[in-house]
Amino acid sequence: MDAYVTLIQLLDSTIRLSVPLLFACLAGLYSERSGIFDIGLEGKMLAGAFAAGTAAYLTDSAMAGLLAAVLVSVLLGLVHGFASITHRGNQIVSGVAINFIAAGTTVILGQAWFRQGGRTPSLPAAARFGDLQLPGAEALRDVPVIGYIYSELISGHSILVYLAFLMVPFTWWVLQRTRFGLRLRAVGENPAAVDTAGISVPWLRYRAVICCGILCGLAGSYLAQAQGAGFVKDMTAGKGYIALAALIFAKWRPVNAMFACLLFGFLDALAIRMQGHPLPLIGEVPVQFMQALPYVLTVVLLAGFIGKAIPPRAGGVPYVKER
Amino acid sequence: MARAAIELIGIDKRFGLVHANRDINLAIERGTIHGIIGENGAGKSTLMSILYGFYQADRGEIRVNGKKVAIIDPNAAIAAGIGMVHQHFMLVENFTVLENIMLGVEGAPLLSKGIAKVRATLRRLEEEYGLEVDPDALIEDLPLGLQQRVEILKALYRGADILILDEPTGVLTPAEADHLFRILRKLKEQGKTIVLITHKLREIKAVTDNVSVMRQGEIVATLKTKDASVEELAELMVGRRVLLRVDKGAAKPGEVKLAVENLTVRDNRGCVVVENVSFNVRAGEIVGIAGVAGNGQSELIEAIAGIRRAVSGKVTLDGRPVDVTGRANPAELRQRGLAHVPEDRHHMGLVLPFEESENAILGYHDDPRYLKGPFLDIEAIRADAQKKIAQYDIRPADARLKTANFSGGNQQKIVLAREIERDPSVLIVAQPTRGVDVGAIEFIHRRIIEMRDAGKAVLLVSVELDEIRSLSDRILVMFAGRIAGECGPEASEGEIGLLMAGVEKKAAAE
Q1: I need a surface site. Which of A208, A312, B108, B439 has the fewest CB within 10 A?
Q2: Which stretches make up the ABC transporter domain (chain B) (predicted)?
Q3: Which class for B220: exposed (0-12), middle (13-18), buried (19 or more C-beta within 10 A)?
């Protein structure tokens, strides 16, 4: 029974840790399926988290924090769009620039405004997204096996967790069943086909980076207002890059993306749990090793196990009308 | 002319210094097939892009069915009933036929209704015009002929009354081209107006009612096709008399210079695309390899030229083996007298941003003639380039001009001059006249025959059947990675066409 409880707790933290990855991964999916590579997920998430922490602290409202996160992240997304769509700049350079801007600006503004070493003051409960108890969670707690799964694993997360997982089927539906999705997929593969069909390539791609911005904002808001209680310097800690790895691993598909993010979330949860617990035979594993695992895994899996990941064909290439 | 479907009045367009269209006046009769021919760079494609709303004319107006319309973008063209089948298909390769057809005209924010409508319309179009295609097939799985049909269906689905086809037969087998022409005639019978842009005179004669000839941005003549001879049209296009048939004497084949035995090659995805191919080329003969693009020709010549490693097989050059499965490399083969004019001059033959003289020595830059100690001898290189420019009549005659600024024909001459002037013993020429205009074609063909007459072994690969037939002394036909058959230059187009389509000789006879 002890092992069972441990396992459920491990899975529970897996879910919590995969949420920011999932938001960011889906964000990247919208952008990259439209042909705009986005290495700036990390920066948008970080700036979003800072905005969420600041706005929620100043207004005492969780919603205001979330909206501020989305707004800031969308604005950064538009900067990326302006550089790479309107001015056909290099998408990687633009994305990296956004990461640097976010990393620097958040700390400087945080220190200037709050003087707590770059962090924002800790948020009261009202300014955070608290855990929701699903109906019947308490009542079912004692039902053997299933009751515990329901009350511990499925119930008791913040609204953003449920939103993240709902975004998965929603994104699939958007891509496969809507006009916007059809055009989005088309523009990432062959923008010339979209252009000759009388659809504006730039406007379509701008809408994609806006979607990306919204989702990165949600990821940031989750970090500052649900997982944590305020913004902390560098709180994304490379999650944007892991999300990119997950996106490649998922071959740019939403349902695969969810599983990839859960896998990386699981490794993360495992790493935390293993800290200070020596393994039989091996002894204590350095925490850095566990933290490196997602990246190692990505390389190994991409190299041999899941076959070739084929990115959207027009990805990274600015669209120029041919003469 | 009340029956004109399209009237272009005084259309004028410049791109910087290039005057692409000069005061074009053209009327296209309703219910006819109207051909537009001209050399590359004559302004055909620009004119059609203006008609389809890709560019705006600087001056002039467009009338559709007698009414003046402003075609500001492709949407406006579609609304005016104009559809276009582009030379490079505008299809999303990993989409289904259905998704491609509905892209841009989905009808509603959700797709389900649109899908039903596309299916119904496809069935109707299939009945009316015999345009069969599986709506759920992925584009990348379809042969090029069918992909083109999807492009036509796209235009028809959007309600096009006037259909513009830009060089539609470049990627088709002769049989597929004939099928296309049948479809076009059928569309004409149903009252559609068709504009066919091509540089192939044969197609103009085969299918059009009227023909307009463009030269240097101007329409130099509009004629009834039945009143115009092929020679006359060629002369109008080029502006001087052109020899359409290549004059050549009989071949005097000597010893075997290039022998290929059981060569097997894989493509980048690891599929075997050349399987057990054997043939040889003798001194003083041209061996032509015919076939629809993508049947292994590219990989075959890459393997012979040392660019791609073969899986198995033997290649002998001048009696000495070439390590095609191992260490062969293009530099070594060049030294041994193998010259290669690659099929895609933009990707493999030239560095477009370089100046002409730099491209003229590409791959031969370590020749002591071009070196002064460890440095390049720029003076010598330019002088040498200038000499070749004169010999090959490359225009503009400026060795310091950026290569991208030369026309396709002149770029090809730069590559040809570089490879031929090395006096190789074996010359591999792939698609020597792709995207090259009639005047330059004549020149290039003459050079290739001169090489043969000088006792060189020439291996010619081309998807242009006419070119293969007029130049080759022996013709090999490739299909699905194998040599499907061999014939002499006297073989009929139909005979070669069947081999190209994979019909074996025996089966064809039955």
Answers
A1: B108
A2: 6-241, 258-505
A3: middle
Which candidate from B46, B91, B104 shows the least CB-CB separation from A198?
B104
- C-alpha R_g of chain B: 24
CATH number attached to the domain at B256-352+420-509: 3.40.50.300
Q: How many CB atoms lie within 10 A of CB A77?
A: 30
Overall fold of domain B4-238 = Rossmann fold (3.40.50)
Cβ neighbours of A180 in B, within 8 Å = 109
Which token pair is A198? 């009388």
Residue with tokens 């039989």: A280
Q: How far apart are CA B207 and CA B226, in angstroms?
A: 10
Percent of chain A with pLDDT over 70: 97
The C-alpha angle with vertex B410 and arms to B409 and B416, in degrees rounded to 5, equals: 90
Mean pLDDT, residues B73-96? 91
3-state secondary structure of B133: coil
Q: Is B90–A193 a contact, with Cβ atoms under 8 angstroms apart?
A: yes
> Are the beta carbons of A168 and A254 closer than 8 angstroms?
yes
Q: How far apart are CA A270 and CA A283, in angstroms?
A: 16
Chain B contact set for A315 (CB, 8 A): none
Encode pLDDT of B30-79 as tens digits: 999 999 998 777 888 889 989 998 888 999 999 999 899 999 988 899 99
| Domain residue extents for chain B | 4-238, 256-352+420-509
CATH number belonging to domain A2-305: 1.10.3470
Please give the residue of chain B at the shortest CA–CA distance from A312.
B94
